[in-house]
Each structure stands twice: as structure tokens, then as C-alpha cells.
Write a structure and sequence with these properties.
2 copies of one chain form a homodimer.
Chain A lengths: L14 E7 L7 H11 L4 E7 L5 H10 L3 E6 L13 E2 L1 H6 L4 E4 L5 E4 L2 H10 L9 E5 L3 H12 L4 E5 L3 H14 L4 E4 L9 E4 L23 E4 L8 H8 L3 E3 L2 H5 L2 H9 L4
Parallel strand pairs in A: 1-2, 1-3, 4-6, 7-8, 7-10, 8-9, 10-11, 11-12
Antiparallel strand pairs in A: 3-5, 5-6
Helix pairs in contact in A: 4-5
Chain lengths: ~270, ~270
């Protein structure tokens, strides 16, 4: 994307939105949301803000008081920490403990919710891939993994396997989702894909050159769907390896694209 | 300017700049600097940030730590307060006590300087209006007035009159400039234009509907130049009244436009 093609037309009246993360170079939100603002005729801009974990609280405090700063998208590694810095959690944020979107309420307090899970499901379904009755393995029980496990369970998957290098985090997520979803087997698993219909990588393993595969895919065939939520690289080693086996692969940007409309409604609804 | 004409093409790699003020709607910097970034082929964006005085320190602290936030333009009413929040002051900032531009040095410390005065002089001179030997009346001894008085004195004006509703602020500015400029008469004056060649309004009087004129222009004729630094409205009551008398009028945006190149060099020079 060339910076010379098309200039930002911003003014002192432009409302400010941001995505905050660390690292930040990989994010797709500026492109997607600025297009969405334009499509709705809104004088608003979304910029990327690169903020380290120790500086997040100060950044949120600044967001809170800045008069023309209306909304915040939150990405890795801040989704869980930010949940403790705001007054109100929507349904998915309360359930997952992770926030990926924050807006201001009329009284100035902050409301956060999480649309990652819904975005992931919508991204798959827009390609004709349903989850009902499927065996799904989710790698990673952090903020994104938690959102995906909950959303997959809500789609009435038959079984959801969960793996995390941190056994406690893995077991906590299994226990939490098992506690409020009926008719779906939620279980701790090893990072082995054999026997699953859909594999989802929700870790950052694959972002850095030389990363190993986050899951052993030796046992899967072309009927398996392999998804990654990593945005950059678009084709992670996992997706490349799965493609070599003839699998359907599903790239990370679909989760983001699947939630743009939902997040826009959240930002601009008078009473969320 | 329609928001639908041309979309911001921003990404996670875009470097962030901002103008901070209160109010903020009037600022022209987003338009001017985004065009300047584009002209230089830089992947950077300047957005407006509306921050109240009590929140300025937190905002500057956030600017300091945000890894992709590289520069700050400072406008009313923060130019003097911000000078006490940063490590280094350039020549014009040290002399005026007011900062209108801040960048980060390689060690992470902040350097501020003030290009308002130079911008005002350059704006006038680009229209063929020189100040050498002239009698100039400056209304307002705040951050902008201070910058303009210093810059006008540097142009070897014959006499610079200074008025401010706050007599102490007025006298302090007269004493300060008299102390380091030779051959120019700097004196406290009433807000009466008669006898001056150039009148400059450096107050915010004229921004709000119904504001009185900041200076009595009953005694001036068409040979007088009347300038305002207010950006919005573009045609202030002062400029309209002066135009009715046949005076040459000079709008506020010229001061801003006159300093864009200088500020760009300040932002992007490796060793300022």
C-alpha cells in the first residue's frame, strides 16, 4: 500500500480511534476501520499506537480524558490486562476475561467487550465452514484462545480440545467453558492435530522467522481445516505446512474482517 | 473538505504525530502536515488531540513512552505549561518560554522549540510585507504574542508596542525582549492602533461570536496592515473591520503555513 496514493484528510474535528498493541506493525485495523469510517461517511480516523505493557495503564488513562478520542481496539499482549482498567465489561469480555474493543459511555466511563470469537466464527462461516458437530482443536488459552474456544463451543461443536504450554491456563479455560456450555465436550489436549476436523492456532508461534509449528499436524489429511489467527506473516509456517497436505487453510485476517461491522455497531450505537 | 474524497491509508507501520490543544476544532495542522508527509513520501500521520490543561502532563507522559509517537505540535492553551514538562528547550523556546513543537531525541528525552514567530514573519514576507523600520503593535503577551514580539523585534522593527489585559504579563514581555534586542524600541502600550504600521492580534478575542475587537482601530487608514493569528474564523471581526477601512489584512493560517517546512526539518533532522 503506497503512502502517496491517497492522503489522509484529517482536521481538528476528526474523531480519534486507535489500536493499541506491542508489537504493532502487524495490525490490519487501521486499513479496515478507516475504510469502514469512510463507507459510513464518518469524520474519524483509527491510528496504531505502540505501547509496552508497563505503559498501558497510562495510555488508557490518557484515552479516558482525551476529549476527541472515542474508541480503542486492544490487541496482543494487552487484552487481559486492560480488562482490569475499565469500569464495564460486556458479555463476551466478562466471560473470557479479555477485552478487544473499548468505547466511552455518556458518563465518561469505559465499556469493553470482545468480538474476536464472533469474528473468527463469522470469518469461517463466510467461507462456508460451519462448526456444528465438529471436533475442533484450539492451540493457546490466552486472550484470543479463550475467545475462540467460547465462540466455537457456542456453535455447538461436538468436542473442543484446548492446549496451552501453561497447564494451569489450559485447565482454567477448560473448566470455565465447560461450566457454562452444555452438550459440548471441552477437554485439555496435547498439541496433536490427528482426529480433529478444525485446528486453530491462537498463539503467537509463527510470527517470528524460525518459529516451530505450534501443533503436530503429521496425522491430518486434506479434509482438515487449519486456521491461524496470526496476521503477519499472512501465510504462517503452519498454514504452509497444512496446505502441503491439501488442507483448507484459513488466514488470520478473516477473524479481524469478520468483526469490523460488529465493532462499528458497538462504537456508534447510542446505547450499547 | 469531504471525508469521502480520499481515505487515510494507514497501517501498523505508520508513525504518529499529533497536535494537542483545547479547543481543537480550529487547528489547521492535520491538513498541512499530512500533505507535507505525503510530499516527502513519509508513512506518518498527524491527528488532532483534544486535551484539557489538567490532563496535559498525562498526555505528554503518554507521548514520551509510546514507541511510534514521534512528534507533537502544541497549541493554545498549552504552549507555556508544556515547556516545564520537557528536558530540552531550543533557542526560541528558551527565549519565549513557550513551546509549539516537540520531538524525541535518540536517548528518549524531549526537545521543544517554538516556530510561531518565524512562521508569522515568513507568512508576512511571502506576501511582500517586511517589518524593518516599522511600528508594530502586538495585542496579547501570552505564548503566541511572546513569539511574535520576539520575531518582529528580530526583523529590526523601529518600535514594537505590546498590550495585554494582564499588566504584569505585558511588562514582563517588554522587559524580556528589551533585554536582548538592541536598536528596537519595545514598550507597553494601550490597545489603540493609531500610529502603528502593523497591528497583530495574538489573543483569542475574535474566536467566539460576539467577541469585541481586541484593539481600537478607529485611528488607522488603508496604509495599515492588520494581522490576526486566529485560525477560525478565518475572517475575524478585527480583519473584517480593518478591511472596511481599506487596510491590508493578513489571516491566521499564514503563520502556520509559514512554519511547516521549518517544523518538518525539526521533526526529521537527525541532529537538531
Amino acid at each position: 500500500m503506497s503512502v502517496s496514493q491517497s492522503p489522509p484528510l484529517l482536521s481538528g474535528n476528526t474523531r480519534l480511534y486507535a489500536i493499541v498493541g506491542d508489537p504493532i506493525a502487524q495490525v490490519g485495523s487501521p486499513r479496515l476501520f478507516n475504510a469502514a469510517f469512510r463507507a459510513r461517511g464518518l469524520d474519524a480516523v483509527l491510528v496504531a499506537m505502540h505501547v509496552a505493557p508497563q505503559d498501558l495503564a497510562g495510555m488508557v488513562a490518557n484515552f479516558r480524558v482525551m476529549k476527541n478520542f472515542d474508541g480503542l481496539i486492544v490487541t496482543v499482549p494487552h487484552k487481559i490486562a486492560v480488562a482490569g482498567m475499565i469500569e464495564h465489561l460486556g458479555g463476551n469480555a466478562a466471560r473470557t476475561g479479555a477485552v478487544n474493543t473499548i468505547r466511552k459511555l455518556p458518563d465518561g466511563s469505559l465499556l469493553g467487550d470482545n468480538f474476536d470469537g464472533a469474528g473468527f466464527v463469522r470469518g469461517l462461516s463466510s467461507r462456508g465452514i460451519g462448526l456444528a458437530g465438529k471436533n475442533v482443536l484450539v492451540i493457546g488459552a490466552g486472550g484470543a484462545g479463550c475467545a475462540v474456544v467460547n465462540a466455537v463451543a457456542d456453535q455447538h461443536a461436538a468436542r473442543v480440545g484446548v492446549y496451552d504450554v501453561d497447564a494451569k491456563r489450559q485447565d482454567d479455560l477448560v473448566a470455565s467453558v465447560s461450566g457454562h456450555v452444555r452438550g459440548v465436550r471441552i477437554e485439555a489436549c496435547k498439541p496433536v492435530a490427528a482426529g480433529f476436523d478444525v485446528i486453530v492456532n491462537c498463539t503467537s508461534v509463527g510470527m517470528k522467522p524460525g518459529d516451530p509449528l505450534p501443533v503436530d499436524i503429521a496425522g491430518i489429511g486434506p479434509q482438515t481445516v487449519v486456521a491461524d489467527i496470526i496476521l503477519k506473516p499472512v501465510r504462517t509456517p503452519l498454514l504452509e505446512a497444512a496446505a502441503l497436505r491439501g488442507c483448507t487453510t484459513h488466514e488470520g485476517h478473516a477473524m479481524l474482517e469478520g468483526q469490523v461491522d460488529t465493532v462499528m455497531d458497538f462504537f456508534f450505537s447510542p446505547t450499547p
